[in-house]
Design a protein that fits this description.
This protein is an alpha/beta fold. The protein has two domains: 81 residues, Orthogonal Bundle (434 Repressor (Amino-terminal Domain)), CATH 1.10.260; 191 residues. It is built from eleven helices and eight strands.
């Protein structure tokens, strides 16, 4: 993607090249990535090929490929592809300060997700590692945010919290993008050095509920492919030890009402999901219990 844009001078057809501000470039990149993910997900849901989307939308095949890859395209191309896929194109300009103020007043919107992150951050803080919450990252055209991060001594831990799975395909896509690009982005930003990370531990932490257990059992092969490793590396992080070298991906069930270090288990592994009893029926029950607990 070029870092130059052309701005007309008054009504004159003459144009001059001016560099795009980093914040504007980041915003443009984020919008393009989100649009590409939406197009790819809907195309996959319909079972269409890239060529079919190009033919139905009247857009060149290469343009459709670049849109799905998260590269910036023209508004007309986005509109044509969206209409062909039955999607609604929307461009909304928001006051970020107002959005953040509103988010602070609407904590209940994702109360359980926040509680899970708080429990993990509290446990990891005791180990003396650096902690990041809702940490942004960007790797070329891919951008996103990581729920909980911890790092130190060239070791990186990334936790993605999931309270429900309304769309498993979207959840898998988001998690896979972070597995592929997050570590490299952070290594560059934190100046880890030419050797990179010694170990990278990716964890999908899911609410320990009947709702989530049902999905895990129904889509066992999918979750085993996404998270094929045991949760030993996470245990090492939580115990203050050093994880083994290499990159792993594990899934755990987490009960945010049970503090880490309690006699009652706070987390359980994917391997145990088939025989575990749920701690909560669903998101609503867990949120109510957390509020009652204070």
């Amino acid at each position: 993607m070029s870092d130059q844009v052309f701005t007309p001078i008054g009504m004159s057809p003459l144009r001059r090249s001016v560099p795009i501000a980093p914040a504007a470039l980041a915003a443009l990149t984020r919008v393009a990535v989100e649009a590409g993910q939406g197009v790819r997900a809907e195309r996959a849901r319909r079972g269409w090929t890239l060529r079919e989307v190009a033919g139905r939308s009247g857009v060149a095949l290469g343009v459709v490929q670049r849109i799905e890859a998260g590269e910036v395209s023209s508004l007309e191309s986005y509109a044509r592809v969206a209409i062909a896929l039955g999607l609604r194109l929307s461009l909304t300009l928001l006051d970020e300060r107002a959005r953040l103020t509103s988010a602070r007043h609407s904590d209940a919107e994702d109360f359980v997700h926040a509680a899970m992150g708080e429990a993990e951050a509290r446990a990891l803080t005791r180990t003396g590692r650096a902690i990041g919450i809702d940490e942004p990252y960007q790797h070329y055209q891919f951008a996103g945010r990581a729920d909980v991060l911890a790092w130190g001594d060239r070791d990186l831990l990334h936790i993605e919290n999931r309270t429900q799975f309304p769309n498993l395909q979207d959840a898998a896509g988001s998690y896979n993008a972070k597995r592929q690009y997050l570590a490299r982005s952070l290594a560059d930003r934190l100046d880890i050095g030419p050797r990179g990370w010694r170990s990278v531990t990716h964890v999908m932490a899911c609410l320990w509920s009947a709702e989530v257990l049902h999905v895990l059992r129904l889509r066992a092969a999918t979750f085993e492919a996404l998270c094929p490793n045991p949760s030993d590396q996470l245990s090492a992080w939580l115990d203050g030890g050093r994880p083994a070298p290499g990159t792993t991906s594990a899934l755990v069930l987490l009960d945010p009402l049970v503090p880490f270090g309690s006699r009652k288990r706070t987390i359980a592994s994917l391997a145990d999901a088939g025989r575990l009893d749920p701690r909560h029926r669903g998101y609503a029950e867990a949120a109510s219990a957390l509020r009652r607990a204070g």
